[in-house]
Amino acid sequence: MHPPLKRHHPDCQDVIKALQMCHATKPYMKFVGGCNDEKAAIDHCFREEKARMRKTNMNRARRNDEEFEKEWESIKKEL
């Protein structure tokens, strides 16, 4: 099961279009594995996208933590 395809996935547009085209051209085969190659490609792309987003968010959180610590140290010095 993959996330909704209507959400913007800039890195995965080509594989999303391939899966949608497969579903459009093989309306019944999609239920019995006719689009498994496209599905595997989209799953791989989404995993890569999620890993990239996770790394970006972690870096942002670390920067925020560092800024908080600096601010906290300056507050402690004032007390």
TrEMBL record:
Full protein name: COX assembly mitochondrial protein
Superkingdom of source: Eukaryota
GO CC annotation: mitochondrion
Record has Transferase as a keyword: no
Keywords, comma-separated and alphabetical: Disulfide bond, Mitochondrion
Main location: mitochondrion
Coiled-coil spans in chain: none
Compartments, as annotated in UniProt: Mitochondrion
Family per similarity comment: Belongs to the CMC family.
